[in-house]
Amino acid sequence: MAAVVVLAGGASKRMGRDKLLLEVGGATLLESAVLRFGEAFDDIYISVADEAKYPKIAARRVVDIHRGAGPLSGLHAALSSLGHDGVFIVAADLPYASPEAALKIIELCGAHEACIIRLPDGKIEPLFGYYGKTLLPLCDEALLSGDNRMSEVLYKANTRFIAPEMLGSLWSEKLIFNINYPDDYSRVL
After folding, report:
1. Which structural domain range is residue 48 located in?
2. How far apart are CA 27 and CA 158, in angstroms?
3. What distance in Å separates the CA atoms of residue 116 and residue 60, rounded to the nearest whole number?
4. What's the total number of domains in the chain?
5. What is the pLDDT of residues 13-49, one digit of tens each?
6. Cys-Cys with 74: which of 47, 93, 165, 169 at CB 3.0–4.6 Å?
7. Residue 47's CATH number
8. Beta pairing class for 159-162 and 44-48
9. Does the reported pTM lie above 0.85?
10. Beta bridge pairs of residue 87
11. Which residue pairs from 105-113 have beta carbons closer than 8 angstroms and sit at least 24 positions apart in sequence?
């Protein structure tokens, strides 16, 4: 089984304060993600730039090796340091992200190196997907070149891009709704 890595290393610049400490339903966004995914996965980690951040969160840490390189840095650190064949990445600011949908994505991945959702308009959601350990060289290459886009890795890898309907009843547009701005938070509340 893959480990789950909750991405928690962002700077929350668009929110103007640490969005992962915002409360939704009595828990912070980060606490909620760790609790939800911890019920379905045995191994859960949070990806952080600073190991001491979020001391109240009861999850093991994966600390960025390449600081300031965004989510790709978190993926790279997870693939470098964890002994799993792959990891499921979920951004902590996805309040409706479902572990059941994550398990389905892992199942749909099959022999592919990665598996993520591609919307009908062509947009992809790289922060809710499965990534195999074989992607580590592509992550290294991207980070060393200075191209920190997750898509840089995904389009070079053997990636399965799945349509939302492949998730069946697990799909909803809310699944990949993320909180970046104060208005997004207000909509969730």
Report:
1. 3-188
2. 37
3. 24
4. 1
5. 888 788 899 899 899 999 999 999 999 999 999 999 8
6. 47
7. 3.90.550.10
8. unpaired
9. yes
10. 3, 131
11. 105/129, 105/130, 105/162, 105/167, 106/2, 106/130, 108/160, 108/162, 108/166, 109/160, 110/160, 111/158, 112/158, 112/159, 112/160, 113/157, 113/158, 113/159
